[in-house]
Amino acid sequence: MVSRIINKNIQIYSYPNEFETCSGSLTIGDLHGNPVKALHILFRHKIIKFKEDVQSPHSVYEQFVKIYDQFGEILQICLENKTLQHFQKVKIENCLAQIAHINQKLMLLDSQSDQYQLLKQDKQQWFDKLSSTTSSNKLIEERFKEIKDQVVHLIGQFNSLMDKLEINNHKVLIRFLGDEFADRGNCDYLTLRILDFLTTNDLKTTHLLSNHGCEFIYAYEKMVQSSVFENAGFIPDFQTQSIQGLKLLLDNNVISCEKLTTLINRSFKPSLKILDYTLNEHGISLFTHAPVRFDSIELLARRLDVIYDGSTKEALGRTIDQINHQFSSFVNSNNIHTLFSTAEIKDVAHMTAEERVAWPAVYLTWNRWTAMKDIEETRPAGKNGYSLTYVHGHDIFESKLAYVHNLDTLCGKEAHKLEDKKIDEYMKFLMDHKYNVGDTTEAEYYMRNVLRYKVIDSDEYGLRSKLIKSQSSEKKSSQEDFDADGSIKKLSKLGEPVSSAVVVITIEENKVLPIFNPQDSSITTINFNSHTTESNFFTAGQ
């Protein structure tokens, strides 16, 4: 088996100038709600391509980027106008209240008195303010009409461009580690359309439950139950902008609730999991959105009444399959939102042992790592003679343990124009301080990570994926034959408090350019077929 981490600086807002192979399973870190990032990676790994009649792939790709950027600009204008409209409404209500108050006073006074005349003048001033505010509010309403026309045009263009795509490699599983939606991007509908394109063309995907994804799921499940699309608000609005872009389309009837429901039911819910895994010759790789302790798997299994078995790598894989099977009942009944209530948790990023036991799903989507947590006791390198590898996103902390891999980077996390502006500013700052004493840590970190993408390309699969791949017809394994009637009751417990294998690593790394050069790149290749060490660690080093 061969698995490799690709760790490079790329420019997602340009059509790839080089391409990567795909061995069968591609794991992508946090998407940050950015559909252009998804497109670029899919093109780069030759999973999708433009149809033969597309003469200039670079220019058509630029059109995707232009639509995305324009939508972001329109969304900012819309959000600003919504804020203005809110204050205008407050002003109008205040004016009306003041006028009503003055009228009450006037009724008690002699119309010939000086006080009466002064109050009449005050009343006129409030009428003038009311007229001015009402006129401003009408201008805002006109802007909203213009915005609707613009987004209708942009969505039409985007859908036309989607018709120019086709699948280039059907024999691949794409695993997203989360944050596909309700993040800092511009519009979740664009991401959904891309995912739907993959699904309707029979490409297999897996999506891991994430904290930003939970905001999206909450809004969807609320819409199903009450026809109101509104996210939970666990994450600040400025960090969930992409769902605001989707709301803009819904509010203006550019897309319908029925259309959104179809997309989600077809292209997101069926492939949603709490965690995932793959098997290799020496052990098992564990995939979660957030960095987690190894024992969190057993805690999650207990809360679902799943019998935990980690005696072998295959047994652990079956346990994870059973956890996801139970979770699917919650997915199908639109009750995922009941799993991630955080009201009783003091700090979701650093939960206590008792909180981890009571709310294991919250832990798997919110936890953050620190140097104090980064010890082998929390994430052991192996168990019962098989090796363990941990792959996650969500967090900026980089573990010193060679078998732990963080795929989260800043790539695609900010608006395109803001990213370009900050790159220019930090570049100038670093050049100015090349020979001067000064703290350049922030600038160096940004320049190292803002264009960096990290993915895992592998030919490893889980037990169920291997079964599907090897047989002509899908059949559920006997380990997944559970009582569906009790699944919801079992899953509800997630939200209720309750009292070494030998491996060789071959590293192939390109020369690192200056810290602020966006072309800095490196690739790490792990070859699992040789045996030259006697370490009890399963490593996939960066």
Automatic annotation (TrEMBL):
InterPro entries: Metallo-depent_PP-like, WipA_N, WipA_Phos
Domain WipA alpha-helical hairpin: 59-162
A Pfam family hit: WipA_Phos
WipA-like phosphatase domain: residues covered: 173-413
Gene Ontology MF terms in the entry: phosphatase activity
Protein name: Dot/Icm secretion system substrate
Source organism of this protein record: Legionella clemsonensis
